[in-house]
Amino acid sequence: MGFRGIIISIWSIIMQLFLLMVTSSSLRLGENEMNRQSLLAFKAEIMSDPLSILSSWNESLHFCQWQGIACSRRHQRVTVLDLRSSQLNGQLSPHIGNLSFLRTLNLQNNNFNNTIPQEIGRLFRLQQLRLGNNSFSGDIPFNISRCSNLQILRMDGNHLRGKLPIEIGSLSKLQVLGLRKNTLSGEIPPSFGNLSSLQVLDVPENNLRGGIPNVLGQLKSLTYLSLGENYFNGTIPPSIYNLSSITIISVLLNELHETLPPGLGHTIFPNLQEFYFGGNQFSGPIPNSISNASNLSVFSISFNEFTGKVPSLARLSNLYRLAFDSNNLGNDEEGDLDFITSLANIIAFANQLILICSQRTAVEAEILGYKHSRAGCFPVFEVCMSLCCERQWVFVIYSNAQYA
Ligand SMILES: *[C@@H]1O[C@H](CO)[C@@H](O)[C@H](O)[C@H]1NC(C)=O
Ligand SMILES: *[C@@H]1O[C@H](CO)[C@@H](O)[C@H](O)[C@H]1NC(C)=O
Ligand SMILES: *[C@@H]1O[C@H](CO)[C@@H](O)[C@H](O)[C@H]1NC(C)=O
Ligand SMILES: *[C@@H]1O[C@H](CO)[C@@H](O)[C@H](O)[C@H]1NC(C)=O
Ligand SMILES: *[C@@H]1O[C@H](CO)[C@@H](O)[C@H](O)[C@H]1NC(C)=O
Ligand SMILES: *[C@@H]1O[C@H](CO)[C@@H](O)[C@H](O)[C@H]1NC(C)=O
Ligand SMILES: *[C@@H]1O[C@H](CO)[C@@H](O)[C@H](O)[C@H]1NC(C)=O
Ligand SMILES: *[C@@H]1O[C@H](CO)[C@@H](O)[C@H](O)[C@H]1NC(C)=O
Ligand SMILES: *[C@@H]1O[C@H](CO)[C@@H](O)[C@H](O)[C@H]1NC(C)=O
Ligand SMILES: *[C@@H]1O[C@H](CO)[C@@H](O)[C@H](O)[C@H]1NC(C)=O
After folding, report:
1. Which of the listed residues 35, 98, 116 should we mutate to test ligand 2's pocket, taking the one with most ligand atoms within 8 A of CB?
2. What is the count of structural domains for the chain?
């Protein structure tokens, strides 16, 4: 290649660079204009805004200055749309899917209704989607699985129905899945065993049913598992008891049965803090190992079929809530109540009376269930009385019926 050839190729490189600059800047303008149009389309679907939150969304301000918006510094693209707790009433526009640089969408605590548009699946950079406490209805859009960077997905407290989309299982970065308090039905799909980053699975107060899938035992990062107030049946799979990171577990009010595993709170769930197994058909003894669960603060197993002697709770210095009522605990022997003296925050319960020793209101009070007859419980009553007085707590007496 001669001198001429070099000049020509340099010239052609310069021309190409120039063209690239022209097209990329017009693309940028296009992208920005699309962001603005998408936000206006979003606003157009808001029927009522009593706090005038969206009055700043006007022509005299750049959209990056509009309330609830944050943009990327360099290219001025919308990365955050956060209008939580703004009393907004309306629908979520499908144009939301055009805000392709969005990383956080937070609309929790408003009154959005109608469905969540499938277009949400176009937000492939989205990391946080928070739509809790609205009135969204319809199904969870399965396209959400295309938001492959999603870490937090919360849609608690809406009117969502239908099944849990199988596709959610492909969200390998998902850490938090919160769908509490909807009307979701069907089973937990086996694909959820692929949610390898999941730390929080929070799906209580739905109409979910079937067995708890074995594959949830693959979720090694899981610290919080809440499946309460559904229709789960069968037993807790042994793989679940293998999850050593669990700190809080609730299967409250389901149709589960079987005994609790030996080692609970010690070798099984060694980091246990809160345990809610009430309102099922669990049976057998409370494992002695619970005495070793040094971080246990809540142990709630009311309304089951537990039997036998209650282990010592003396070492559980963090325990503040204990619910044993409506079981068959105790062997009708002298030592049955030994554990009571080991408790710091003591409450007693007899067949006809529930004695509540409370720091604040009765609602917050701790209850201890016991099948002993009223007469047989008088010594307990005294223990409780004296401990209550010692701590200057309120002492309340309810009859069983009244409490129920
Ligand atoms: C636009 O919003 C700003 C900030 O809320 C406000 O000061 C201004 O008066 C608004 N302009 C118009 C034309 O509404
Ligand atoms: C934005 O999204 C809507 C609905 O998904 C679509 O109809 C429209 O063409 C998009 N706008 C632009 C400018 O691409
Ligand atoms: C959503 O709320 C608006 C205003 O309250 C109401 O007019 C509309 O019918 C609701 N739509 C749905 C699908 O519930
Ligand atoms: C939903 O995802 C499918 C592919 O999984 C795609 O074909 C479809 O266009 C998406 N729908 C919307 C509204 O983005
Ligand atoms: C939803 O509302 C309840 C009750 O007001 C509140 O405790 C909860 O924190 C709210 N959830 C979200 C996600 O804001
Ligand atoms: C889990 O992921 C693996 C690998 O991507 C895939 O082969 C498998 O089908 C998935 N399992 C389920 C139940 O979706
Ligand atoms: C659990 O419930 C389903 C129906 O939801 C039923 O088909 C299944 O047999 C039940 N399993 C057990 C172990 O009771
Ligand atoms: C529990 O974990 C151990 C070690 O990771 C493994 O060998 C065993 O198969 C697991 N048990 C169940 C029931 O998943
Ligand atoms: C108990 O909790 C403390 C403080 O959160 C923590 O440092 C400790 O490792 C926990 N111990 C167990 C056995 O979980
Ligand atoms: C409680 O912990 C101690 C010390 O690790 C251990 O020797 C004992 O066997 C444990 N008791 C139960 C019932 O797990």
Report:
1. 98
2. 2
